[in-house]
Amino acid sequence: MNKTMVVISDSTGETANQVLDAVKVHFDIKNVRIKKFSKIIRREQIDEILNEINGEILIFSTIVDRDLLNYLIEKTEMNESIYLVDVLSYPILVSSKFFKQQPKFDIGLNRKVDQEYLEKMEALEFAVKYDDCKDKFGILKADIILIGVSRTSKTPLSLNLAFKNYKVCNIPILPEVEVPSELFKVDKKKIIGLIIDSDKLNNIRENRMAKIGLQLGYSDDSRIEKELDYAKEIMNKIGCKIINVTDKTIDETSNEIISYIDK
């Protein structure tokens, strides 16, 4: 028996590989060769593949480029020993009718989506790792650095920005704690200072104390004023952008940060 199962794709071929593997389990297959070809983007490559393989051929194709796919179809129709399974066309055709949209037919679109997902997960892991200055070296690696007193939404902002693929670290500013020297070594345009009105901060901290029993003085007026004054002093020394988050939602602040950073 001279049979070969072939994967041909103009991208990575992962989808066609999965279909081939799913088909194989339903048959008692012995002595069948399997060949896989990815990044096939020229007609000459298709000719080389078909000339290289003898005997009967079963092709699983996920070629997206319509001209190249039509060429493969023409070549296989001319040869009775070649069977072609066009993995994508029928599902895309039916989906096109369902969504009442023309398909994009972008080569490697799945890979682009996968890459975006991986980048997002990497950004989220970064935000968690470098939350609240757990590791000050995150300052040197971050796309965005948030600084501010406690309860200025640094952590939720970090996660919100991470979902938009930005690597963010956040640094609490406290009078008793020395500011990391790394803040003065990076581009100040990466640093965003977050401030908030003292009355609003007082209310937030009092509610926080009631819920989890934080120490006395955390919501004291004089303490808050001292923290805010110190934070503003540091921000001015750095020369970074300062955003008042008092009446802003997380999304509003996030969008303002992105608009600034992307400039």
From TrEMBL:
<keyword id="KW-0547">Nucleotide-binding</keyword>
<keyword id="KW-0418">Kinase</keyword>
<dbReference type="InterPro" id="IPR026565">
    <property type="entry name" value="PPDK_reg"/>
</dbReference>
<keyword id="KW-0808">Transferase</keyword>
<dbReference type="GO" id="GO:0016740">
    <property type="term" value="F:transferase activity"/>
</dbReference>
<comment type="function">
    <text>Bifunctional serine/threonine kinase and phosphorylase involved in the regulation of the pyruvate, phosphate dikinase (PPDK) by catalyzing its phosphorylation/dephosphorylation.</text>
</comment>
<dbReference type="InterPro" id="IPR005177">
    <property type="entry name" value="Kinase-pyrophosphorylase"/>
</dbReference>
<comment type="similarity">
    <text>Belongs to the pyruvate, phosphate/water dikinase regulatory protein family. PDRP subfamily.</text>
</comment>
<feature type="binding site">
    <location>
        <begin position="148"/>
        <end position="155"/>
    </location>
    <ligand>
        <name>ADP</name>
    </ligand>
</feature>
<keyword id="KW-0723">Serine/threonine-protein kinase</keyword>
<dbReference type="Pfam" id="PF03618">
    <property type="entry name" value="Kinase-PPPase"/>
</dbReference>
<protein>
    <recommendedName>
        <fullName>Putative pyruvate, phosphate dikinase regulatory protein</fullName>
        <ecNumber>2.7.11.32</ecNumber>
        <ecNumber>2.7.4.27</ecNumber>
    </recommendedName>
</protein>
<keyword id="KW-0670">Pyruvate</keyword>
